[in-house]
Design goal:
Elements: H1 7-21, H2 28-33, H3 42-47, E1 76-77, E2 83-87, H4 115-126, E3 133-137, H5 146-157, E4 164-169, H6 171-174, H7 181-185, E5 193-199, H8 208-219, E6 224-229, H9 238-250, E7 253-259, H10 274-287, E8 295-299, E9 306-308, E10 314-316, E11 321-324, E12 330-333
Parallel strand pairs: 2-3, 3-4, 4-5, 5-6, 6-7, 7-8
Antiparallel strand pairs: 1-2, 8-9, 10-11, 11-12
Helix pairs in contact: 9-10
The chain binds pyridoxal-5'-phosphate (PLP) and iron/sulfur cluster.
Pyridoxal-5'-phosphate binds at residues 77, 79-80, 83, 85, 135, 306.
Length: 336
């Protein structure tokens, strides 16, 4: 023994260190989508721990989108006047390696909201009549039992100014069998309109099982939206994004946001440049239906909300303006 670590031992130690720092989990369905012997498989990249997560760059921060400064009571994040987040669950069925809340989600990171804290959160929402919409997020609120989900829905429905409950979840994609009829029924009431926003990043994630779960939600009259994170090696090319957006629309999901990746710790290997992101979005615009166009956004570090990044198709001309068509050419627009 000369004391030097073999490369195999060093690699195993690095992965153990990653798993000590960040929660790790993958569902059997996502595992089944991973091709054999491809270290760059886009599903594997999203869920399997990677030694590169130990690299933290100076720009990265534990709370990249600034939830903490906008937390008036435990479990609530309020950045906007008319809506707030309610985080009731701090665990997920999978742990995405690029997660923007990776320092807060997972076993042992954040305690689940106690009954008293939940009461205080509902009291806060009830005391602020300008709150029109409550967004259930986490963690993944689709891990609640139907009974607990119904209890939350009914308490929000009892607050007259809350009209919309929006559920943010990855479960219909990664563990679709959890979306049972009883669970779907627990998501809304006659007084409280539910929207469900799913998270999907690669066309392979839209499996037949996921489509069935989405159909159960759609048939209950729940409008479906999606959020996608733009990730290097997973979906940073227009062909992959186009296939994903078409698959979502075919499953009755309206693409809502394409997120530029946040500055979460240990995620630099996923980062795409803003120039590349804007170019891909322009290409997508040129080749796919308007139904397939999410809004490209970036959460401003520090908690100042989402900024739209999409390429701007208007500029000042010699007189009046110029507008850019999907063919890339600028044309004069001179009103009055
Ligand atoms: C992203 C976010 C929302 C939702 O914003 P929309 O643009 O309405 O989707 C609401 N509150 C907080 C704190 C957020 O970070
Ligand atoms: S499902 Fe969402 S909250 Fe959970 S690990 Fe993935 S990105 Fe993070």
């Amino acid at each position: 023994m000369d004391g030097a670590l073999s490369p195999v031992t060093a690699a195993r130690d690095a992965l153990e260190e990653v798993e000590r720092r960040y929660a790790t989990a993958i569902t059997p369905l996502m595992e089944s989508l991973i091709g054999p012997n491809d270290p760059d498989d886009p599903i594997a990249l999203q869920f399997r721990p990677d030694a590169r997560e130990l690299i933290t760059t100076p720009a990265e921060r534990a709370d990249p989108i600034g939830d903490h400064p906008f937390t008036p009571v435990e479990g609530v994040v309020r950045r906007y006047r008319d809506r707030c987040l309610l985080k009731v669950v701090s665990i997920c069925p999978v742990y995405c390696r690029f997660c923007f809340r990776r320092e807060m989600v997972g076993p042992g990171k954040t305690a689940p909201l106690s009954a008293e804290a939940l009461d205080a959160a509902f009291a806060y929402i009830a005391a602020h009549p300008e709150i029109w919409e409550v967004i259930l997020t986490g963690g993944d609120p689709f891990l609640l039992s139907p009974r607990r989900a119904r209890a939350i829905t009914e308490r929000l429905a009892a607050i007259p100014h809350v009209k919309i409950i929006r559920w943010h979840t990855r479960v219909p994609i990664v563990d679709p069998d959890r979306v049972t009829a009883a669970f779907v029924d627990a998501l809304h009431t006659d007084e409280l309109t539910a929207y469900v926003a799913i998270h999907a990043n690669h066309p392979r994630e839209i499996t037949p099982q996921a489509r069935q779960a989405l159909a159960r939600l759609a048939k209950a009259g729940i409008p479906l939206l999606s959020q996608t994170v733009l990730l290097k090696g997973v979906n940073d090319d227009v062909e992959t994004l186009e296939q994903l957006m078409r698959a979502l629309v075919e499953a009755r999901v309206k693409p809502y946001y394409l997120h530029h990746p946040d500055l979460a710790p240990g995620t630099s290997h996923f980062r795409v440049s803003l120039e590349r992101g804007r170019q891909i979005v322009r290409e997508l615009h040129a080749r796919a239906s308007g139904l397939c166009q999410p809004t490209y956004v970036l959460d401003i570090p520090g908690g100042h909300g989402k900024a739209p990044l999409g390429p701007c198709a208007i500029r000042a001309g010699v007189e009046g303006y110029e507008l850019r068509g999907t063919d890339g050419a600028w044309r004069k627009y001179t009103p009055d």
